[in-house]
Design goal:
Length: 149
Amino acid sequence: MKQTTLCYPMKDGQVLLAMKKRGFGAGHLNGPGGKLQAGETAEQACRREVKEEVGVELLGLENRGTIEFCFVDRSDWDQSCSIFVATGISGEPVESEEMKPEWFTIENLPFDLMWPDDPHWLPGVLAGGKVSMRFYFDVQGKLLSFEKM
């Protein structure tokens, strides 16, 4: 199972999401993040990926738990994802070849443009909670089921 990260930088009652422009998850809004490189901790990977994808440094980074994403008939897509929230950033978000960042109010998250699992855990994480869940998807990205771990 791949080891990955997702980060949700917050500022003034807003959260930074980014539209994935290419590769796995293209067309979905998500937190920036990605795969761990050899020898990296999840926190190091999170900081590196956010800098690469949206051009900001993270402040007040907090690990809020783990989510496993499992895909029926595509175990090579399975991942164990460390979820982070940053209570601030240094710099202004910029678009990269991979992601286009945008601020959203926490009360009005655009779930219709996000992965179908997000409504089940993201509001709680953004409110200060932790997550430990497993989500099952088909190869088209349809959410089949989920469970607490």
